[in-house]
Amino acid sequence: MHNAVMHPGREAAPAEEEREHVMATNKEIIENAYASFATGDVPAALGAMADDIRWTEADGFPLAGTYVGPQAVLEGVFMRLGEIGDDFAVLPEQFVAEGDTVVALGTYQWKHKESGEPATVKMVHVWTLADGKAVTFQQHVDTVRVRELS
After folding, report:
1. Which of 17, 74, 126, 135 has the smallest number of Cβ neighbours within 10 A?
2. Side-chain half-sphere CA neighbours of 99 within 13 A
3. Domains and CATH numbers, the chain
């Protein structure tokens, strides 16, 4: 960030106003999408996606398949997470970014639908972005373990 230059008769622009003009990094876009999802702001999470995003859930995962577009992700994935277990949560622990790719490493957590026992499985999500929007999503997870704990 650069220092504000003072001119007679004009006030310096606040630093926050300067930041508004700087585009978020790909890593920040994805971090914000997870934060929005975690707080229940699904429209903001979907807003990080391109209109033609290709969202792929791993083969063998209960929601396996490729969903095209935010509405398909909402209906085919987000609204169906309860099929895996109760109180399903995605908890990213680390983000790694290079170029147009952002990788989120973390865990899925939920409660078994019948016993209520807590379940945790590690996951990796690989995102590709273009022009500030997510254009692809690829899930990597131990699908056998997810099914055992669901």
Report:
1. 17
2. 4
3. 15-149 (3.10.450.50)
